[in-house]
Amino acid sequence: MYTSVSVSNLTKLYRHYHGPRALLKGLVLGRPPQTLIRALEDVSFEIRQGESFGVVGDNGAGKSTLLKILTGTAVPNQGEVRVEGNVAALLELGVGFHLDFTGRENIYFTGAVMGLAREEVREREEEIIAFSELEEFIDQPVKTYSSGMYVRLGFAVATGFDFAVLIIDEALAVGDQRFQKKCTDRILGFKKEGKTILFCSHNLYQVRTLCGRALWLHRGRPMAIGPASEVVEAYNAFTREAPPPTSTSHRPGQTSPTQVCWVERVELTGEDGRPQDQFRSGDTLCLRIVGRFTNAFIGVPALGLSIVRNDEVVVYTTSTSMDGFELRHLSDGCFTATAVFEHCPLLSGRYHFHLYATDQAYLQSYDILEKAACFTISDSGPDVGLVRLPHTWRW
Known about the structure:
Layout: E1 3-16, H1 20-29, E2 35-48, E3 52-56, H2 63-71, E4 78-83, E5 87-90, H3 103-113, H4 118-132, H5 147-158, E6 165-169, H6 177-192, E7 196-200, H7 204-210, E8 213-218, E9 221-227, H8 228-239, E10 248-250, E11 261-269, E12 278-280, E13 285-293, E14 302-309, E15 314-319, E16 328-329, E17 334-341, E18 349-358, E19 365-378
Parallel strand pairs: 3-7, 3-8, 5-6, 6-7, 12-19
Antiparallel strand pairs: 1-2, 1-4, 8-9, 10-11, 11-13, 13-17, 14-15, 14-18, 16-17, 18-19
């Protein structure tokens, strides 16, 4: 299996002048631009023949610039790009259509731009028209088309000719829902045929489903490249501004002379009792908590905990008093307990524990320890959301 797309040390700079006057001076006097914008910096990857490869990232990350370079509509400042075979690109559908030409004339016009002979275009003409469902309007100027008709013809033409590499940029939301399904089915058909597909989208579910590997770009730089599910989860975690993972927290003791109860030590382990902060969905998590209370404390303390995702979404909250569990009292006012989450159903993401030392009624908090233990859950399955819920399907 050969390499269809090879990108090596790709860098793209855009010159930015502050206004028309600065641009004119730059052109006439040969002055350098006031700002150089690095749209891409040192990007390298390879796509094998027949592979579906995704690109994710925020707006302005350099995704569209990368696709334009791959299709030959932009030129890099540094680096090398090699694409084997002809390319079909779904960037901005319908770009390049002549508004005064009819739909049929634009089919031939696009074919000529792609370097196809008229006979080759004629062989695909009726199939393209049938897919676009514009038989009644195909001999009318495209300037009379609605926006939906325009992009339907654009999709049909872009995918209607034979190609080796298909490049897609947010182009699966075409027309109504029925036509969108038709377009998606065509893309999946290309995948089954072994066509090489480069898919760029903000729809991360589509990237995970359609692609085997993916690239994450951030401000023009590659942040991660690998299995699509892992790259998507890393990107998701980054956008939620994750705290640094740690499995153990130590407290020096009382934070004030009047404090009567506090959490002193927290340790997150796996089922084997070893400290751990990397888990798979379905693993067992054990959170061991050690605290102290003084003689001034009346009664027996309780512990509360919350599991929080790194975008501060609270996944679950419980306490020893809610569960009817009494803390184990050791010597010198020390108490300990271990919360065990068997077969934890959390899906991929980064999480942390918030801990609370409270009274039995869970009304008064004596100590609060935020981000007591941070951990990461990884999962390569197709599930999407916070947790995997046990369920069945019935007729």
